[in-house]
Design goal:
Elements (H helix, E strand, L loop, with lengths): L1 E6 L9 H14 L3 E7 L11 H9 L4 E5 L2 H4 L1 H10 L7 H4 L4 H13 L4 E4 L16 E5 L3 H11 L3 H21 L5 E4 L2 H10 L5 E3 L20 E5 L5 H21 L4 E5 L5 H9 L3 E5 L5 H6 L2 E4 L9 H8 L4 E3 L16 E2 L3 H13 L1 H19 L1 H16 L2
Parallel strand pairs: 1-2, 1-4, 2-3, 4-5, 5-6, 6-7, 8-9, 8-11, 9-10, 11-12, 12-13
Amino acid sequence: MNLLWISHNVPYPPKTGVLQRNYNLLREASRRADIHLLAVFRSDILPGDYDLAAATRELGKLCRQVEVVYLPTETSRTVLYWTAFKSLFTQDPFSVNWAKSRGMRSKLRKMVESVKFDVVHFDTIGLAGYRGEVGSLPKILNHHNMESHLLRRRVEFESHPLKRLYYTREAEKLERFQQRVCPEFDVHLTVSEVDRERLLELVPGIRTEVIANGVDVDYFRPSGAQQTPGNLVMASGMNWFPNKDAVLYMCDEIWPRLCARMPDLTWTVVGSSPPQRLRDLAAKDSRITVTGFVDDVRPYLDRAEIYLCPMRDGGGTRLKILDALSMSKPIVSTTMGCEGIDITPGVDVLLADTPDEFVDQVARLRSDAGLRQGITKAARELAIRRYSWDVIGNQLATVYRSLTAA
């Protein structure tokens, strides 16, 4: 099978959420198909000092062909802001206008002309503007999140009136775009049943399949290292608004309450782009460690006593929750933070939706060794049974086969 994969990022290294999903799905697909990858270079989501040549070499081990395209919006901040402004007056939303490029279109046409493809995999709704370039080939559209729903949620947390208006209009335009173009795709992949239901509510009658986010259970496994008593950890890239909001919520509302009840706690924040308010707080409070981006998050998860996920916004499913489950970490999360993941509250995760509930759940875990041990065991078992990439790869292969069956 020849598979054309059009990606809105260069999916290597698998060190952040969206890159983890894309790389591991590519790896699973490469075991079953010959992949030709057309990827957009995006510097904003790439970790640390990025080596594109090394990334291309590694992806070349999975793909027959790797082509990287630089969009005008990704090479100039002026073009990016101008595109965002112009999107106020266009039918298509910014997330679609962002990806428009003559160079991308030309590269895609050449690839389609040179190889007889069996299936085309569009990585996100923003790339759906290129659907006409692949003719009548079977088309899959992947949804990392239900993007229009994500924008609706963003409005709830935005205090600036002009930004609220912008996000509201973008959500409306994206919903209309989804209703117009989604029926043109043969299959839609969502990361959870929740997102599947949201998509079908907006666009009834389309074919949808749940291909969940997953975790490399061999890579993310507990090492047996000694834990640091009282150490709490959060891990995420804070250049994405929902992750930034979560860490600021922790700073302002949860951490002061935790310290008042358990002054021996320490808090480690791992991930790129930590906000200034967090860094200022860490400068005054020696119990807080802010690492910035790290190449390997596992040692920080290993040493932590409890993993926290106080997310109030976002969409899709959180790969960081899956990583923590696979590392046998006791997790305290908002209900939203575990949305779309097949957890059983009180068995493999503890839920907390207010600052006081976070304090109570952390206190429970610290005082009840039996509860802590039961949750860590169940967490690892859930990751292996439901979310290992080989399980998900088999599900993805079934979708591909259904589109190529004579």
